[in-house]
Write a structure and sequence with these properties.
Layout lengths: L10 H16 L3 H7 E12 L6 E12 L3 E5 L6 H8 L7 E6 L16 E4 L11 H11 L4 H14 L14 H13 L5 E5 L7 H14 L6 E5 L11 E6 L2 E6 L1 H8 L4 H13 L5 H9 L6 H4 L9 E4 L4 E4 L10 H4 L9 H17 L1 H21 L7 E7 L20 H10 L3 E5 L3 H9 L5 E5 L3 H11 L5 H6 L3 E4 L4 H25 L25 H31 L2 H7 L4 H30 L8 H25 L3 H18 L11 H8 L2 H15 L6 H27 L3
Parallel strand pairs: 3-7, 3-8, 5-6, 6-7, 12-13, 12-14
Antiparallel strand pairs: 1-2, 1-4, 8-9, 10-11, 14-15
Helix pairs in contact: 4-5, 4-6, 4-13, 13-22, 14-20, 14-22, 15-19, 20-22, 20-23, 20-24, 20-26, 22-23, 23-24, 23-26, 23-27, 26-27
């Protein structure tokens, strides 16, 4: 609107000057004004996405909720209502702007927000389905610092008032409407100063909906309770003291329902909302312009009507209280110490911890089948490992071409005593004890063809004068002829496509020959060392003469099982709570991230101890995995590994938004840890760069420590042993710290 001829300023500017002069003479200060408001939002701006293409949710929004009133927040889905409420309760941060709630900034020390001063009912049900109605009330009552007796008193009233079924009914067995009523009751139970209800009457019987509104009006009668409510039913907010019409991240209006309809000359709030929305689409975004166009009144009348709660950039108006105050939003003074309230902040609240631990154990008790599976799964895995990994393969077929026999049908009967005939059969007797199947073939070509066809793993060929040539080689030494030397060789052709089988067969063939040579030479009164190579392997200092892969892999496998099952358990529990709104509701009620993590650690630690004990009993007592060290320290290291896995699971849950992302991250970390931590192959065989990387991974040092204790019997004083404990403890601190910081600071 243009200023009239000869006037230096426009009517709006003149009005601003009048307001400023009036405020200086008679109105309270900005600080006093904010003390009188339950919620005060100024210039709220919130966006998501990149700077190049941001998704603006709140666009310079201003909101004033006087104490002792019902404030109806109306708007279509996606207009920013839930984001605004999350900012008010301190669960999200604005990109710019300010929010004051109950005289303090949300999240500030001692403000009580988040905390028991605010009752919050989110849009989701956000309840534990396995809990009964009474158990749900007890949990939220304990969180608020109430006793069980006080919770039972509230329970009796709320069940009657909200027409709920028996207190022993499980939440998951209730209808959708009943579940919402229980969620509503959980927000009421602590008698908070500020009650924030997101769609509380969806699916509720009309008569009961009216009763709920009557109760909300009764709560605010004394002026000590304030209620912010969002609803799909626009007309039911006619009972609210003031409503805010929200669209596109801005307020179209903020006024009492009756006055809104009077100003617009319309009979329903829905018609008012529709008309203001159309005007907004036409580009008239300033509140005063919208009012002037719709009502035909000059801008001066906007001082009386106060639709947006903010005129221009720095004039705050409240028609409900008929007061006008200048707000200097760029220089907001701090509240005095007494306004912030007594600082009762404690890192750990005993009531919170009692509620969380009780809740977690109760959930486990109600899911006995799931818990039995969780505890039994590592036992099944260690049984499968012990039965399938590290055992010598049996039934491997060896093709035997023995030309000392006249034909393949002739039995190969080894002689007894110092007999120089059929030494090939004498050797094959020892080889047969190695659990291999000896299959005779008539010629070399058929035997080699059997290997090519996969019917045999190796071919052993004895010449027709093998026994005579071998004796000549032993007795004549350097004087033996070349033909006897060649004829005394046992020729072996193998399939080495499978490294493990090939190496085991080489070992069996070699050890069988040593046993055969020892038996033959002693039977002929020679020294048993006569036919051996001049090298003597004494009894090993650590480990058996013939080590098995089970003993080598067991430390890494046991720690990996405990570590990653703990990851799955904790990340699953945290994501379940967060995605169903349970985590958000707990945080709004005043529970801290540290308390939530420690609550899960305490309960799941008990489960993990059960898993550890069962795995170690099955591994060491049932399957006799070698354990030369102290089983107590082995148990402690395994428990530390499980605790580290729990903390890693918390980190994954806090960093990821969905179960799918968490699953990908957990699976993506599994293979690198298994491959690089010396679990299936020694770290000494890795590329130097990967070897350095492996040293900083969680399971590398702990696996070496575990292996040193069970295979070598080393005590905790050895560096290799205690370094595993130190490494695991450091990773626990690192993961737990990251998880706590993510919970504390990861706000949208």
């Amino acid at each position: 609107m243009e200023a009239p001829s000869g006037s230096a300023t426009s009517p709006v500017t003149s009005l601003e000057l009048k307001v400023r002069r009036s405020n200086l003479r008679s109105q309270p200060s900005t600080l006093d004004t904010r003390r009188r408001q339950a919620v005060c939002v100024r210039r709220a701006f919130k966006k998501y996405g990149p700077k190049s293409n941001p998704n603006i949710i709140l666009d310079g929004l201003n909101m004033t909720v006087p104490k002792g009133t019902i404030y109806g927040l109306l708007g279509a889905s996606g207009c920013g209502k839930t984001t605004l409420l999350s900012c008010i309760v301190g669960r999200r941060r604005l990109n710019s702007g300010e929010i004051w709630v109950l005289g303090g900034r949300p999240g500030s020390k001692g403000s009580g927000v988040p905390g028991p001063r605010v009752g919050y009912m989110p849009q989701e049900i956000a309840l534990y389905g396995e809990f009964s109605i009474r158990e749900t009330f007890i949990y939220f009552a304990w969180v608020a610092g109430m006793t069980t007796e006080q919770a039972d008193e509230k329970l009796e009233f709320l069940i009657k008032f909200l027409q709920l079924p028996s207190e022993n009914r499980l939440v998951k067995n209730l209808s959708g409407g009943q579940q919402r009523r229980v969620s509503f009751a959980a927000a009421l139970i602590a008698d908070p100063e500020l009650l924030i209800l997101d769609e509380p009457t969806v699916g509720v019987d009309p008569v009961l909906r009216q009763n709920i509104w009557d109760h909300l009006v009764q709560l605010t009668k004394d002026g000590n309770k304030t209620i912010i409510i969002t609803t799909h039913y626009i007309e039911e907010t006619t009972q609210a003291g003031i409503i805010g019409l929200m669209r596109g991240g801005k307020f179209l209006s903020e006024e009492s329902p009756r006055k809104l309809m009077e100003m617009h000359g319309l009979e329903t709030l829905e018609e008012v909302f529709l008309k203001l929305s159309k005007r907004q689409n036409m580009g008239l975004r300033r509140r005063s312009s919208i009012l002037s166009s719709v009502t035909g009144l000059p801008p001066e009348h906007d001082v009386e009507d106060e639709m947006s709660g903010e005129f221009g950039d720095n004039v705050s108006i409240s028609s409900r209280r008929r007061s006008i105050a200048v707000t200097d939003d760029n220089n907001v003074p701090e509240l005095p110490p007494e306004e912030k309230g007594s600082s009762s902040f404690k890192p750990l609240d005993s009531n919170h911890m009692k509620a969380l631990i009780w809740k977690n154990f109760l959930w486990m008790w109600r899911n006995v089948g799931v818990m039995a599976f969780i505890i039994g799964l590592p036992v099944v895995q260690i049984i499968l490992f012990c039965l399938s990994i590290g055992k010598d393969p049996k039934g491997l077929k060896l093709a035997i071409v023995n030309q000392e026999l006249q034909n393949i049908a002739m039995p190969c009967v080894p002689p007894i005593g110092c007999n120089n005939t059929l030494l090939s059969c004498r050797y094959l007797k020892h080889l047969a004890t190695r659990n291999v199947d000896l299959v005779p073939y008539g010629n070399e070509d058929d035997a080699i063809h059997a290997i090519k066809k996969g019917k045999a793993w190796a071919t052993l060929m004895f010449s027709s004068n093998y026994s005579e040539s071998l004796v000549n080689r032993l007795e004549m030494g350097k004087d033996v002829d070349e033909w006897s030397v060649l004829a005394a060789d046992l020729n072996v052709i193998m399939d080495m496509s499978n490294q493990q089988i090939g190496q085991l067969l080489q070992r069996d063939i070699l050890f069988s020959y040593q046993d055969f040579a020892k038996e033959y030479t002693t039977s002929c009164n020679y020294s048993e060392k006569f036919a051996n190579i001049p090298m003597n392997f004494e009894t090993p200092i650590y480990g058996p003469r013939e080590p098995n892969f089970t003993d080598f892999a067991a430390p890494g496998v046991i720690l990996t099982i405990i570590f990653f099952l703990s990851v799955a358990l904790t990340s699953g529990a945290m994501l379940l709570e967060r995605n169903e709104g349970l985590l958000e509701r707990s945080l709004v009620s005043g529970i801290t991230g540290i308390e939530i993590l420690l609550g899960h650690v305490t309960t799941q630690f008990v489960v993990m101890i059960g898993q550890t004990v069962m795995v170690l009993i099955v591994g060491f007592a049932v399957f006799k995995i070698t354990c030369e060290g102290q089983i107590g320290w082995v148990t402690v290291l395994t428990i530390l590994t499980g605790l580290c896995g729990m903390c890693f699971g918390f980190t994954i849950a806090c960093a990821c938004e969905t179960e799918r992302t968490a699953t990908y991250l957990a699976m993506g970390s599994f293979l690198p840890i298994v491959m690089l931590c010396g679990i299936i192959w020694p770290t000494e065989g890795m590329h130097p760069v990967l070897r350095w990387i492996s040293y900083i991974l969680p399971l590398t040092k702990s696996t070496e420590s575990f292996r040193a204790m069970i295979a070598r019997g080393w005590p905790i004083t050895k560096p290799t042993v205690y370094e595993g404990f130190i490494s695991m403890s450091l990773w626990i601190v690192i993961f737990l710290t990251i998880a706590i910081l993510l919970i504390k600071f990861k706000k949208g």
